[in-house]
Specification:
seven-stranded mixed β-sheet, alpha+beta, five-stranded antiparallel β-sheet, 5 helices, 267 residues, 2 domains, BirA Bifunctional Protein, domain 2, 32% strand, 12 strands, binds biotin, SH3 type barrels
Length: 267
C-alpha cells in the first residue's frame, strides 16, 4: 500500500538538509541499499553517495541475517565514507556510528537510548536501530559502506528475529513524514563524528560511549557463532572499541561476538 506524498521519502528534502555535498539516491524498492553502494564503488564511481529506500528485498543484517524491511515504515540508508584509517581501527567504526545515532535521538528529545556492543541501538532495552559496516577497497583507498536501519513505524504484527524485541520512533511521537529529516540528521552527525574519529581515534569518544553502554556492570555472555567466548561483567570498551569483560581479577578483551545477558543456568 502506497503512502501519501507527505509521508514518503523525499530526495529534495534530504539533500537540502544535509550540510556537505553528497549525491542522494532514493529508491522505492531495492535489494539492499548497502549492496547498491558497494556496487557503485566496484563500478569505479569513487564518490560519496547516500542511498535510501522505502523497502529492501534482501536487506542485510549482521552475521548474514536478513534485515526485514517492510515498505513505507522505516529508515533504510547506506552511505560510502572514504576512511583514511588503519585496519586496527575499523572495528570501532560501528561504535562511532552508533554513538552518532544516539546523539541524533537525543537531539530529537528521545531519552532512554542505549548502545549494545558493537552495533545495536536500543530504546528501553529493545532494538530501535542496527548498524552494519562493510569495507571496500577501491584502488589504494579504503571505503566504508555504512548501512543503518532505524525502526520508525513497524507494521502491526511485525515480528523480528531478535531476542531483544523491538521499539520504534512512533512510540516517541515521530512518524513517517519525519524520516527525510532524520536521515539528513543521521548522515550529518555520522560524518562529523567519523571525521573526528579518523583524526583523533576512538579513545576520546570512549567515555561518551560508556555512558550509554547497556551492559555496563551486568552479567553477560559473549558468543561467537555457537561458542561461548567470554562470560563475566560488562566493563566498557578499550581505546580501539573492543569489549571488556571482567571475571574474577582478569579482564578479557573481545574483538567480535554477540553479547547477551547471562541467564542463571549459563556458565
Ligand atoms: C543489524 O543486524 O543490526 C544491522 C542491520 C543493518 C540494516 C541496514 S538497513 C540499510 C542497510 N542496507 C542493508 O542491506 N543493511 C543495512
Amino acid at each position: 500500500m502506497k503512502k501519501s506524498v507527505q509521508s514518503r521519502l523525499d530526495q529534495g528534502v534530504i539533500k537540502s538538509l544535509i550540510k556537505n555535498n553528497v549525491d542522494v539516491y532514493v529508491f522505492e524498492e531495492i535489494d539492499s541499499t548497502s549492496q547498491w553502494v558497494v556496487e557503485r564503488l566496484s563500478a569505479g564511481s569513487v564518490c560519496t553517495v547516500l542511498c535510501v529506500a522505502e523497502t529492501q528485498k534482501k536487506g542485510r543484517g549482521r552475521s548474514g541475517r536478513l534485515w526485514q524491511s517492510p515498505a513505507y515504515s522505516n529508515i533504510y540508508m547506506s552511505f560510502s565514507y572514504l576512511a583514511d584509517i588503519e585496519l586496527k581501527n575499523i572495528a570501532a567504526t560501528s561504535l562511532v556510528v552508533g554513538l552518532a545515532i544516539t546523539r541524533v535521538f537525543k537531539n530529537l528529545g528521545i531519552s532512554g537510548v542505549t548502545l549494545k556492543w558493537p552495533n545495536d541501538i536500543l530504546l528501553r532495552g529493545k532494538k530501535l536501530a542496527g548498524v552494519l559496516i562493510e569495507a571496500k577497497t577501491v584502488g589504494q583507498q579504503l571505503y566504508l559502506v555504512v548501512g543503518i536501519g532505524i525502526n520508525v513505524r513497524n507494521p502491526e504484527g511485525f515480528n523480528v528475529d531478535s531476542e531483544l524485541g523491538w521499539e520504534d520512533l512512533s512510540a516517541e511521537g515521530l512518524g513517517l513524514a519525519d524520516r527525510s529529516r532524520i536521515i539528513a540528521m543521521v548522515y550529518d552527525e555520522c560524518e562529523k563524528l567519523m571525521s573526528s574519529f579518523v583524526a583523533n581515534g576512538f579513545a576520546m569518544l570512549k567515555k561518551e560511549w560508556e555512558a550509554v553502554d547497556e551492559y555496563a556492570g551486568k552479567d553477560v555472555v559473549v558468543m561467537d557463532q555457537n561458542t561461548v567466548i567470554a562470560t563475566g561483567m560488562g566493563s566498557g570498551v578499550d581505546d580501539y572499541g573492543c569489549l571488556l569483560i571482567k571475571k574474577d581479577n582478569t579482564v578479557k578483551k573481545v574483538v567480535c561476538g554477540d553479547v547477551s545477558l547471562r541467564k542463571s543456568h549459563e556458565e
